[in-house]
Amino acid sequence: MENQQPNKGKQLKKKQRKQVVFRVNFLFFTVFLLFSTLILRLGYLQIVKGEDFVAELARVDEITINTTMPRGRIYDRIGHVLVDNEPQNAITYTKTTQTKARATYDKEGNQTSEDGMLEIAEKLAAYIEKDDRRVTVADKRDFWILLNPELAAEKVPKEERKEISSDKKKTSKQIDREINQLTRDRITEEELNSFTQEELKVLAIYREMMAGYAYSPSIVKSEDVSEEEFAVVSEHLSDLPGVNTTTDWTRIKLSKSAILGSTTSPIEGIPKSHLDHYLSRGYSRNDRVGRSYLEQQYEDLLSGQKAVHKNIKNRAGKVIGTEVVYEGEPGKDLVLSVDRELELELEQMLEKTLRDLKQSSTASKLDQGFIVMMDPNNGEVLALVGKQIVRNEETGKWDVLDYAYGTFTAAYEAGSTVKLATMLTGYNEGVVRLGERKIDEPLRVGGIWKRSLFNRFGRVSIDDVTALGRSSNVYMFKIALSLGQYVPGRASSIDTTAYDKFRDNFASFGLGVRTGIDLPGEVEGVKGPELTVGKLMDFSIGQYDTYTTLQMAQYVSTIANGGYRIAPRVVKEIREPSVDGIQFGPLLQETPINVLNRIENTDAEIAQVKKGMNYVYYGANGTAARLMEGAPYTAAGKTGTAETFKDGRSTISLSHVGYAPAENPEVAYAIVIPHVTTHYTFQTSATTNNLVRGALDSYFAIKERRAQEGTESEIERLILPPIEQVEEKN
After folding, report:
1. By the 8 A CB rule, do 552 and 562 touch?
2. What percent of the chain is predicted at pLDDT more than 90?
3. Tens of pLDDT, residues 370-416
């Protein structure tokens, strides 16, 4: 028994030791697992997620500063400045996330914190002049509350606040919003009018400071900052935290051409309609952006890149300075394909024509005119000219306004100029053959007589070339009737797919579809809704669907270059900003030629249509015979007259398309003058003919002079001064 007792004690102790060892081992193993997990986690965070966290830190600490980088310049093809930047002194203010509206004070009135925006505005008001024209009633209410916090609190008594707060359905934000609105509404007119002139100046400055965003400089004053104001503020910057003196840029238009577009000002900022678009791309609300046409279309290139600064914080997390990470860069320069000298001459011609026409009593509906010239081989637009003539209500005289964008946003019936497309459609669809003769004679369809202008009652045998040269309506009617499988005497019997065939073929030339120009707002035109035989005949002579002047230019260019529809382009080159202001900056990109499609007609069919266009100018009975007499160049074209309507009145609209030289086209043109007259005479069509001759004379004269001067042959072209006496600020 005695031996069993010690053995039992030994076994118990041994068992206890084993348990201790197990527990210690388990503890060590657990600690090992925890340390292993921690090490793995740290490794994962550093190796796998390291770059992500660095990027996140950069997003927090690196901020894009709304610096006033100058926008890219815009030049014409020769180098004349069309849009420039004008530097001007500016005073800015940048607030941070710690900036307060005003400083805090103790009961004795001693300032207990750093200056807030109100105190800075008061100091700044002593150094600069600032008008209060932009101060609103809402601004005055906010400012009165800021200056009179105790009186403002009394506007909504405690009992009323308690009652508003007792509504359990309202959130704390809704309660604060309601109390704030009641406070604002109860500020009297007398209180709003109690501000002194000096306080209004402080308010005008304060509202500009408040308008900015954290770390984004807002312009307090940029127009008419005197040298004295600039110097005094610069001298006292140490007493004006957040205030800076810098150089701002004003956009200057040196050309009247509307397609250049415009920009917003820093005060306007981003238009509400495009706010989400720009904010998602890193813009600030008060950034100036392109508002229309070229300035809008090429905003990404023209705007440049903002500077990026990195915040420097102390241990408390307060920003104590910034460090430049990226200095930003100016916008890229655009060199247009447009020849502004040529464009100006065309504008003067068109303006004189509209003024002369407007003298007639039959021109009551005339109000617009358009000219487009382009290179048919590469799509470069040489001139986009549009004019509106309107009565000045004050002077009673006629004013002529720029309407260049109407060349691609306004569509009209083009008349006989589309007969080239009708003939090519006939060839392509197999309803007319090369050289085929048809009888031009009056046709009676659906009880209505339809005739050619040159042959009212007789029967004349003509081939396809002569039909184009003399502008035979009947020849085109018979193509349309064949395409629609019309049975004589059955006016309702027509294959309406003829419309689709016509429109598909016309679209391949650029008629009735967007041309692809690098400008916003282009329209396709209007397609007639009725599908009758009479309307099909009208379609074939250009008196049904409507087309823009630019579409007409693309259409005739397609014929001129042998059948390739090329997208028109206004921007020829993208360049780095000029280093010295004398020569263009390095070339970044030349806009490529964009061939949209090749028409399905054969070379022989296109050549046959070109013969018809030559007949127009040089044939004995051509509709513009002798127009090119004495010209040192050759040309080919097609005239057009359409019976149209405006404001319930019957009118005549004119068009004219063509290209030159006839044997090797280098320029194509389209002219449209809608609603020229309410009473047609044969002299009416001379209007567009004269414009064509004048435009071509100008084009070749300018070309010859430049060839002698070597203007366009220089590898590094010089920046040339504007050629217009215009200076419009955006």
Report:
1. no
2. 52
3. 999 999 999 999 999 999 999 888 888 899 999 999 999 999 999 99
User: What is the spatial distance between Cα 459 and Cα 552, in angstroms, rounded to a whole number?
Assistant: 32
Judged on CB neighbours under 10 Å (0-12, 13-18, 19+), 423 is buried
The model's pLDDT over 567-615, given as tens digits with 9 standing for 90+, comes to 999 999 999 999 888 899 999 999 999 999 999 999 999 999 999 999 9
Encoded tokens for 317: 């997390």
d(CA 361, CA 363): 6
Please list the helix, strand and coil fractions of the chain in percent, rounded to the nearest 5, in that order: 40, 20, 40
Helix (H, G, I), strand (E, B) or coil at 719: coil
Contacts of 102 (CB under 8 A, 6+ apart): 116, 117, 118, 119, 146
CB contact burial 544-560 (16+ within 10 A = b; e otherwise) = bbbbbbbbbbbbbbbbb
Rg (CA), the chain: 38
Three-state SS letters, 222-252: CCCCCHHHHHHHHHCHHHCCCEEEEEEEEEE
List strands edge to edge, sheet with 62-65: 62-65, 307-313, 319-326
Task: Give the up-direction half-sphere exposure of residue 408: CA atoms within 13 A in the CB hemisphere.
Answer: 27
**For the chain, which ranges sit under pLDDT 70?**
1-22, 24, 43-46, 48-68, 309-322, 489-492, 680-684, 711-716, 725-730
| Euclidean distance between CA atoms 68 and 248, whole angstroms | 6
Residues 251, 225: contact at Cβ < 8 Å? Answer: no
* CB-based contact 437:463 (threshold 8 Å): yes
Angle between helices 473-483 and 497-509 (to 10 degrees): 120
Q: What angle do CA 26, 27, 29 make, to 5 degrees?
A: 65
Contact at 8 Å (CB) between 566 and 557?
yes
Active-site positions? 416
Task: Please tell me the pTM assigned to this model.
Answer: 0.81
